[in-house]
């Protein structure tokens, strides 16, 4: 992309952000919840009540700003995210445009940029194939970056059967043991398909198979709240918050991703920036229970290319941080 001048890029972003920022409150409009789940917790708890998702460690999945990471590089993106108030980042790859440095950035350089900007690497999404073929190197990478967790956004198995999920659980147990031996936690991030029922056993939910057959000492979970609610819409009969209450120590992180309800689309929701949707996050954060070691990470898969650019996806990151901080206050 040629030589990038950081000061010009930053000024351009700030001007555009100031012009384009809108006030978006954290929505609490009712979503599509089963009647039984409505009574589990009120939509809103007492103002200032202790929450199990701390507001002083809000994170971001870098996939949300992947276009900026590639075009501007980690240095500029980390500086902007730190200025916004983010404290933690979850990786979705470790590369940027090689024209920024004239070569690819190294992991140690990324770690230095994190430290320089007061950011902590909380986790990373790795392709499940790399766990099969390159596990120890991935664990090495995680330790260089100083992250306590390493995971995958792949489903446990591409085959939606109970038998396949049982077999996949054994793989995760083995990988999890290797991660534990290195002082790390291995986690799986859900989409909606994990909440479907097994093709071989139509009465059994696949997510339950994975939970029951993985070792809680070695395999952890990152609930993508948006996709859990989509799963609830597509495969009814469960409450996302109830999983967390039943297994609080296994859910190290949440993807705090918002959506606007639309029963006319296949997923029941359209993804949007945080606070612009109507998913019942007030109810969710009060219904998951008091355990206080969950990390809230903002993600919006669709942020790149959906906003005026600049600020583009960084503008969505700024507005979503404000809405998420307000929700957790």
UniProtKB/TrEMBL annotation:
Residues 78-290 form the Xylose isomerase-like TIM barrel domain. Pfam families: AP_endonuc_2. The keyword Iron does not apply. The keyword 4Fe-4S does not apply. SUPFAM superfamilies: Xylose isomerase-like. InterPro entries: IolE/XylAMocC-like, TAT_signal, Xyl_isomerase-like_sf, Xyl_isomerase-like_TIM-brl. It comes from Streptomyces spiralis. This is Xylose isomerase-like TIM barrel domain-containing protein. Signal peptide: none annotated. Keywords: Membrane, Transmembrane, Transmembrane helix. The chain crosses the membrane at residues 12-33.
């Amino acid at each position: 992309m040629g030589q990038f001048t950081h000061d010009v890029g930053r000024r351009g972003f700030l001007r555009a952000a100031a012009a384009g920022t809108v006030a978006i409150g954290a929505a609490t409009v009712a979503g599509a919840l089963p009647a039984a789940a409505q009574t589990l917790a009120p939509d809103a708890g007492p103002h200032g009540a202790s929450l199990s998702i701390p507001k002083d460690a809000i994170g971001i999945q870098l996939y949300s700003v992947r276009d900026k990471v590639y075009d501007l590089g980690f240095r500029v993106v980390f500086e902007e995210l730190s200025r916004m108030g983010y404290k933690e980042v979850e990786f979705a790859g470790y590369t940027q445009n090689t024209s920024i440095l004239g070569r690819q950035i190294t992991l140690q350089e990324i770690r230095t940029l994190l430290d320089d900007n007061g950011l902590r690497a909380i986790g990373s999404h790795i392709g499940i194939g790399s766990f099969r073929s390159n596990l120890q190197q991935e664990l090495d990478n995680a330790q260089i970056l100083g992250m306590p967790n390493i995971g995958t956004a792949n489903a446990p198995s591409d085959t939606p059967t109970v038998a396949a999920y049982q077999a996949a659980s054994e793989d995760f147990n083995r990988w999890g043991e290797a991660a534990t031996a290195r002082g790390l936690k291995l986690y799986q991030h859900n989409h909606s398909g994990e909440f479907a029922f097994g093709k071989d056993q139509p009465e059994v939910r696949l997510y339950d198979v994975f939970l029951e057959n993985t070792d809680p000492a070695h395999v952890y979970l990152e609930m993508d709240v948006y996709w859990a609610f989509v799963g609830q819409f597509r495969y009814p009969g469960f409450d996302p918050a109830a999983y967390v209450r039943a297994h609080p120590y296994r859910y190290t992180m949440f993807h705090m991703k918002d959506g606007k309800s639309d029963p006319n689309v296949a997923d029941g929701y359209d993804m949007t920036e945080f606070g612009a949707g109507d998913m019942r996050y007030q109810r969710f954060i009060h219904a998951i229970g008091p355990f206080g070691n969950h990390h809230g990470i903002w993600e919006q898969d669709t942020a790149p290319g959906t906003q005026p650019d600049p600020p583009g996806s960084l503008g969505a990151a700024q507005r979503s941080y404000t809405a998420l901080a307000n929700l957790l206050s």
